[in-house]
Amino acid sequence: MASGGGEQHGTDSASYYVSHHLTHLQVGEGFWTWNIDTLIVSTVLGVIMCGVMYLGARRATSGVPGFLQNLVESLVDFIDGLVKESFPGTSKFVPPFALTIFVWTFLWNCMDLVPVDWLPAAASMAGLEYMRVVPSADMNATFAISISVFFLIIIYSIAGKGFGGYAKEWLSHPFGWYLLPFNIIINFVELMAKPVSLSLRLFGNLYAGELIFILIALLPWGVQFIPGFAWAVFHILVVTLQAFIITVLSVVYLSMAYESHDEH
Amino acid sequence: MGINATIIGQTITFAVFVLFTMKFVWPPIKQAMNERAKKIEDGLAAAERGEASLAEASKASDGALKEARAQAQDILAGANRQANDIVEKAKTEARTEADRIIAAANEEIDASMQRAKAELRKEVSAIALAGAQKVLAREVDASAHDDLLKQLATEI
Description:
- The complex is a heterodimer of chains A (264) and B (156).
- Chain A has helices at residues 11-21, 36-58, 67-86, 94-110, 118-125, 139-172, 180-216, 225-258; strands at residues 26-27, 34-35.
- Chain A has 264 residues and is mostly helical.
- Chain A has one domain (11-258).
- In chain A, strands 1-2 form a two-stranded antiparallel sheet.
- In chain A, strand 1 and strand 2 form a beta hairpin.
- Chain B is mostly helical.
- Chain B has one domain.
- In chain B, helix 1 (6-136) crosses helix 2 (146-155).
- The model of chain B has no long low-confidence stretch (mean pLDDT 90).
- The A-B interface holds A 22, 26, 28, 30-35, 38-39, 42-43, 46, 49-50, 53-54, 56-58, 60-63, 65, 69, 72-73, 76-77, 80, 92-93, 95-97, 99-100, 104, 135, 138-141, 143-145, 147-148 and B 1-7, 9-11, 13-18, 20-22, 24-26, 28-33, 35-36, 38-39.
């Protein structure tokens, strides 16, 4: 939220400030460009996530749990309930998958609450010109999750209904065999819409949130804390909610893919 | 902005984290939670069983207490009866003893009275003989009148 300074910026320097904050630290050309900041931040957060959860799970006891075990158990219980509600049958994969999505995106989103200039300033001291610290405000990160979900939807559809059943659903749902071409179009749109909406929802919310924090940082320093505080409080909700939504929707998509629609 | 190779790196990272969670986080935590649930279930069942057996035991102890009380009452009554018997027996014994002592004393008294009477008789006959001797001076023959004197003595 805090900024390096507001008043001395003119319009040009303000737009420079904003666009500077929205530029990735990149290497490479064209498609083979790597957003180093996103990769590093998300990996570090993921390692923290796995480390904490591993520490909690390593000496898991059925007796009185310690602090870390309690924390991980709460998460596991929460995700387990979520998956049990919608996913038909039992799966060894879906619950840990959902847990990873939830905690990882939650940590990504939390990076939005770090004052917008801290990490970029630290990076520039280390000689890195650009630094975006919110992985969920990078489409590559959100699409990485949603494309994984996309492929899992196809895999689970085939696993749940068989190859023939899945093909039949493509051809005969939702309008019946007589409108076969429309069925294919609809199913194609539906399948494509799922990962796109999944990732763009998370991306859009967090990108907007980050942008607002950057704009707040352009205000005179004496009044920044008022909108900054208000937005941060609101953002606590957004952070949790968006992580929750992407988790729930991923589970729901996989559940829909897995269960049979023959009763329709 | 825009999609670039980062997405590949992110997907691989994501896959690694998912596999890690699936292998090292989810199973032990889930197992511990299931075990705890089992433990709690067992504990509740044991508590229920304990409660039931407590109720049973208290019922049994109530019965035993009642029985013991009745038995104590019996014993007390028996003891009282026995004590009364002993006292009664002692009283009768004392009474017979006293009677016996009294009878013996009476007999003794009678005997010594008889003895005193006999003595007295002898003495009276002697005194009478001496008086008669003095009255008759020397003429009376003690042996000739002995029968008479004896007869006299028995008559007194």
